[in-house]
Amino acid sequence: MQAITGPSVVGVISGTENGTNNDSTVTVGGNRTAATAYGSSVSQSLSLEANALPLSGGVVVLAGGSTPDGNVLASGAASISNLQGNYAGAVSAANAGSIVGIAADSRGTGGDTIKASTFTVTGNTQEAVAVSNSAGNALSLTGTTVGSGAGVANVQVVDGNSPVQAQLLGSTATAYLGTHTTDSTVSLTNNLQRAVGYGNSASNTLNVAANSANVAAVGVPASTVVPGGGTVVAGYGVLSNQTALGDVTASASGSALPVGALQVLVEGNVTRGTVTNEGNAFVGAAYGNDVTNGAKLALGSGVTTAGFSSVANVTNLQNVAGDISASASGGSVVRTNIEDNLAASSVSTSNNQIQALANGNRAGGNTLAVTGNTLSNVNTGVPRQGASSNGPVLMTDAAFSVQNVQTGSGSVTASQLEGAPGALTAAQVRTAIGGSVTGSTVVSNGNSSSAVATSNSATNGLTLAGNAIASSSALQNSQATSADVNALIGLAGTPGSPGRRPRRSPSTQQAQAWPGTSRTARSP
After folding, report:
1. Which H or E run contains 250?
2. Is pLDDT at 38 greater than 70 in this prediction?
3. Are the CB atoms for 318 and 291 separated by under 8 Å?
4. Is 172 in contact with 331 (CB distance < 8 Å)?
5. Distance (Å, rounded) from C-alpha 469 to C-alpha 370?
6. What are the residues whose beta carbons fall under 8 Å from the beta carbon of 505, sequence distance 6 or more?
7. For 101, 115, 422, 493, which has the most beta carbons within 10 A of its beta carbon?
8. What are the tens digits of pLDDT across the range 50-85?
9. Which residues contact 468 (CB under 8 A, 6 or more apart)?
10. What backbone phi and psi angles, to 5 degrees, belong to 32?
């Protein structure tokens, strides 16, 4: 599966053919250029609502395996199951040479100055997104009284011969003014450039809203995980099992044009003007497995059981073994450049983000939240095991429980560096003023540049809220990795030397532009 787009142009060109820009407003906003590729994608939901939903399953049994053959089981009165497998199927998306922005000039009658005008490039998106397996599963039960035996099972498998690649190449969002400006505003704000790749991505939710719930007795443990799979047996349950053995690569590379990826460029003087390059984002993000699992039980008067019961469980399994790599690079990624003088004006290059994010396994949330006036289980006299482990076997045995198991290998790399060793460049945020600065402010505040690599990450939560709680709960987290994890950002400095301070005559001092910038002569 392959998606390719570009070169592409979305923009406005104004005043370049001996025209003028005077007392004008030009905006390029809310546009999107994208290359998007999915191996498999599904969104499914089941919603049941009635005064009485007795259901008849008693319990729900959920099971899911991994490679070499993914398998799924969902047995209960109300259930959703999903099985997605990608075997020997590459998925790639490339967005190359995307240009979004404004090019304005003023060389016609009245001279070479843009006057009293506003130019805005805002809220545009340039992206490449590649996903091997994507799923959204949602089950909802609403009634005065609700029975049990409901759950969601999700299994996703990507084998080692199924790489995922997302590339954003040589793209730019630019506000370009080709001459002097007076009493004018130019801004590049809230634009997004990104390359994102996923092996497996899923969202699984179970919501029960009732005045009361009747849950069948369940004497066995709520969840059991063994190598290769897991099982949930509960009144209400969510099970997700994701396996990613192939490589996932996401690379965002700055523009190959003579401008930056996110750039404001004025080829002349700025007088009594405002220049803004703010709130933009440049992102490369790669995920082996990514999921959110959530169950919410809002049970008015509470829950009753005929004996001990595994009332509700959320279990998440994730295994990644490929190489997960994300890069955001390209030299001066965010750049504000005024080639000549700045007078009685303000310039801001602020609150921009450059991010390289690589995650092997990420569980954005494994959560179970239960509310009710009374949350109680009949005491059968048999002690529950809570959360336990016996070698490779992991178990939760409680009325309410959450379990997370993640394993990682291969490598996880996030980088903002580009080029061969010894000639590397790093992603940068820069402001360059080529001439004199008089009565003006120049700021570069609140920018962030980050490279983050993580093999396993999870947010697990279990909440019980009621006036009377006489029950048991367990939360278990198991994370193991042998992955090579690297986050690369910035360049090593050059060792200092005593040197000599050059002699300079006061009459020979001059402003210096950043290396690589040009100075184009313009008449005053």
Report:
1. strand 248-253
2. yes
3. yes
4. no
5. 11
6. none
7. 101
8. 999 988 768 999 999 987 778 999 999 999 999 999
9. 302, 373, 374, 375, 376
10. -145, 130
